[in-house]
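I hope you will forgive my troubling you with a question about protein structure. I am sending you one protein, given as its amino acid sequence and as whole-number tokens for its backbone shapes. Thank you for your consideration; the sequence and its tokens are set out here:
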Amino acid sequence: MSTASATLATRGENTAFIVLISCVATIGGFLFGFDSGVINGTVDGLKQTFHSSEAGIGFEVASMLLGCAIGAFFAGRLGDRLGRRGVLIIAAALFLFSALGAGAAHSSLVFIIARVMGGFAVGAASVMSPAYIAEVASARYRGRLATVQQMAIIGGLFCAFLSNYLLARAAGASTEALWLGQAAWRWMFWMQVLPSLLFLALLMVIPESPRFLVVKGRREAALAVLTRLYGAQEARLKITEIEGSLAQDQHRPRFSDLLGKTTGRLRPIVWVGIGLAVFQQLVGINVVFYYGAVLWQAVGFSENDALLINVLSGGLSIGACLLTVVLIDRIGRRPLLWIGSVGMAVSLALMVVAFSSGTLMDDRLQLSDAMGRLALVAANAYVVFFNMSWGPVMWVMLGEMFPNQIRGSGLAVAGAAQWTSNFAITVTFPMLLAGIGLAGAYGIYTAAAVVSIFFVLRYVKETKGRELEQMEG
């Protein structure tokens, strides 16, 4: 499209409305982040209340991720049946019930059930929010809007860390009673009720994805939504493009579409999606998110200091995402990924150096002042590199890289792979910590970051500036 025709095409575009409904979808990302980060400050409370072993704590922390894998897997397919908005409404209700249940739990089993329920919501939101944004936004700024999803995730993490810190400080410790005689760690979960209610209410007033409506044969409804988004002239052009992209596959979307018609094997694009999803977790980012307080206490910081460091990391993460918003539609997705991989590999290696220099005293790793500062700086540099690259860009690419016919199924498979990897990394960290120590655990994550550099350079293709109808499988 020429510059002149592109300018003409955007005259009727309702950019403010597109940004507004995209921001509503990103509240799912905020809740995804809050639900993921809130566990960080509650580990001591869970140990005291449920008398859990190290393996038990690992499972209680990671239990949500089992739900995430299931939620992500079924959300993609449900999104093809109920719509992107319909799945997000279900997710909002699950966020609400999970927050109430996890805070009220008086047994490990009830807590795990509540967290798995929240996991269904997180998994669904993780794939449907970026898919919705990708399907309503113009290619010109689709990357920037989808990156706002990661900012919302980090914003949710930041608010969870800040809320945990303030509640624990007000009570004296996360295990001490706060309001209504309930321990502070319970209120950490209940804080999620307010954004869950807001998300549910706002979802009732945004439109369904026009691409979903076309797939379902609801052409007039799709044209009405596209007209609200882009104006009448551009709406007619876009609906023709969408119908053209679906013309070769008139059947309903199904998982078998992920297989090559001649080979009978998974299409290469699906393997790339799985690779992006898995590497995002193999670099160990959620060890910092879920076990940040435990990690920093393990190297000698107090609980309050450890929770405050989490707040600092959350703030740096938001700044890194803002940088990505500026760059992603200018330099593209692929350069951000390999730059992030290089940065993470270096910063993780420095953390390994710092942790390997420590000595164990009373089951805690003691670092010298210099090595403690190195670990702190390297960890925050790692968080910045992740959140300017793999954090947002992986979700942006999953939302836009698949052709229309296989977007739901592709997201289902890649999303399930992402959360299964997340579960494996999270549940094994306490055991790695006890077995090979922090240096050994972070050595594994460093190796994964190095391999991810070559994966990006060899297999990942650029999607910047391409309309969804131009994506090839």
User: Anything to note?
Assistant: The first strand starts at residue 359 and ends at 361.
